[in-house]
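Please check this protein record:
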Amino acid sequence: MNIGRWQRVARKAAIALWPMRVWRRYDQQARRAGLDRLYLILSFDCDTPQDIEAVKTLHPWLQARGFKATYAVPGAQLEQGREVYRALADQGADFINHGALPHMEWRDDRYWSITFYNQMSAQAVIADVQRGHELVQQVTGRQAVGFRAPHFGHFQQPEQLGLLYRTLRDLDYRFATTTMPASALANGPIYPTAGLYEIPVSGTFRAPLTILDSWGQIADPRQPVVQDTYAQRFIATISALQARRVAGVLNYYVDPAHVVNSAAFYRALEFARERGLESLHYGDLLERIRI
């Protein structure tokens, strides 16, 4: 018997089965929370001036097809695109607090990330959250009840999340959506923590620990347009989860400027609509749960 060969076969089989074991546990947690099907939450991180122009095209397209959009806009960009974002709010768009300081800067012919909470003092983080809260209300005319920290993966330590949740609780927030897909796989698509709810972002069926976002699906940061791999992974995930009757939430976010000219993005959403995936705001999800 070729033991080495059978060990390789067994290892490949275990790897192939791993996603389904993960999603089965996720499904159980989702159903305990009161969810009986798969839902879609679309949010848009608007970190650059290009996003201001992009949403003017993107939002009407989404509305016409029944997709609910949530916008996470740093306060600096809210002020710059005040008229556009106020108009979106008046049209039913939802806004969450994304802090106040700018998240990107232009240099060397492309945008680079700045403002990392893990590099800031606790006092500076608190001040940025509070100022972001004020700017959402000033620009949109509504009080934010949800929050997302800048740059996923950089503010995930328990003490960091504890600081964030305490700050949000003092502002009477209902939820945060600031943790990685691993949090959803460990705790479910939505779970109570520190007096509010956390709604982690999502991965894909085959790579459940890896965020499916727009930045990870562009070929050139100097010409950031989402490639066809985005549609392939989006569609494959919906197909696989629905075929296995997995309940839960695909909590996906993109940058508007990365997708507004991407055929792959529109193809992915048209597939979701054809498959009857209901689109929610975060508040809609909170109304459906029983935890």
